[in-house]
């Protein structure tokens, strides 16, 4: 395979996504970058998702479809899917999101240009269930900028991420120790194998479901994030300033004392603006 035309494995992990999964898969079938395999791993869906996927697999021979005999959970399903990928790069797309046609082409171009980049993502458009854009979430672009803010928030868009597979396999993949924030943890751990970079344009439409985050889950997310941020500093050598420390402690206190309704407001608004 030519250097600038490597095989990309697009990993779509699905579970009960019958209402959205066809749009998701077709957005990859219609990519301008065509040297791909579409690896779809279904986690024992019960809502008709597999019927939709089986229909699509008959339309496009690039689709490699499998279904777990029992539900493995997100971590187990993602890790299972990665091991089925044979491409130089593994691109992630959630089973209810939608990729712009140029997404893979832009990411391959970036990663082929710099062999030290092991992980890249890009901006993403935050949408309602009908994929109407509500706002655009932006991220720092270069490795130095990304590392500088890693201890405050996750500056990589996991739903639009592309990973260098050989480096990804060295991390032992997603950890079962993280019921949430498993992506943030993996993003930190891959740092020892190379650089980060982000594409300065929206790569996907990220669908926000009508069910809002619960106060309990928001608290869990903040607590796990704090643990990962400390891990980034003390195990992986990310820089940590006095201001960063004050910011994290205040946020941790707020997580404990603020009412769930206000935490939902912060989660839905501040998180989309902080990296703009």
Give the tags.
276 residues; 2 domains; 21% strand; nine-stranded mixed sheet; disordered C terminus; alpha/beta; 41% helix; Spore Coat Polysaccharide Biosynthesis Protein SpsA, Chain A; 9 strands
Layout of strands and helices, then pairs:
Blueprint: E1 8-14, H1 21-29, E2 36-42, H2 49-59, E3 63-67, H3 73-84, E4 89-92, E5 98-99, H4 103-113, E6 117-127, E7 133-137, H5 143-149, E8 162-164, H6 165-169, H7 182-189, E9 195-207, H8 215-234, H9 242-257, H10 260-273
Parallel strand pairs: 1-2, 1-4, 2-3, 6-9
Antiparallel strand pairs: 4-8, 5-9, 6-7, 6-8
Helix pairs in contact: 1-2, 7-8, 8-9, 8-10
Explained architecture:
With 276 residues, this protein is an alpha/beta fold. The protein folds into two domains: 8-207, Alpha-Beta Complex (Spore Coat Polysaccharide Biosynthesis Protein SpsA, Chain A), CATH 3.90.550.10; 215-273, no CATH class. It is 41% helix and 21% strand. It has helices at residues 21-29, 49-59, 73-84, 103-113, 143-149, 165-169, 182-189, 215-234, 242-257, 260-273, and strands at 8-14, 36-42, 63-67, 89-92, 98-99, 117-127, 133-137, 162-164, 195-207. Strands 1, 2, 3, 4, 5, 6, 7, 8 and 9 form a nine-stranded mixed beta sheet that branches.
């Amino acid at each position: 395979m030519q250097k600038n035309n490597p095989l990309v494995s697009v990993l779509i992990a699905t579970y009960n996504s019958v209402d959205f999964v066809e749009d998701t898969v077709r957005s990859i079938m219609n990519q301008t970058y065509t040297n791909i395999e579409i690896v779809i791993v279904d986690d024992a869906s019960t809502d008709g998702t597999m019927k939709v996927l089986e229909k699509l697999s008959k339309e496009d021979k690039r689709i490699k479809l499998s279904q777990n005999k029992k539900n493995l959970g997100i971590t187990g399903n993602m890790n299972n899917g990665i091991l089925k990928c044979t491409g130089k790069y593994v691109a992630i797309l959630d089973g209810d999101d939608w990729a712009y046609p140029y997404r893979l082409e832009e990411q391959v171009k970036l990663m082929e240009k710099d062999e030290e980049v092991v992980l890249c993502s890009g901006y993403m458009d935050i949408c309602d269930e009908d994929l109407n854009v509500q706002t655009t979430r932006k991220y720092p672009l270069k490795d130095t900028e990304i590392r500088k803010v890693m201890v405050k928030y996750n500056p990589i868009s996991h739903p639009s991420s592309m990973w260098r597979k050989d480096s990804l396999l060295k991390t032992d993949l997603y950890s079962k120790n993280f019921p949430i924030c498993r992506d943030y943890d993996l993003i930190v751990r891959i740092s020892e194998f190379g650089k980060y970079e982000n594409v300065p344009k929206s790569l996907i439409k990220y669908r926000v479901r009508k069910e809002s985050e619960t106060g309990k889950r928001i608290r869990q997310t903040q607590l796990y994030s704090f643990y990962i941020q400390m891990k980034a500093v003390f195990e992986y050598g990310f820089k940590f300033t006095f201001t960063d420390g004050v910011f994290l402690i205040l946020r941790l206190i707020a997580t404990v004392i603020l009412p769930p309704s206000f935490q939902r407001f912060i989660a839905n608004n501040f998180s989309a603006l902080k990296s703009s």
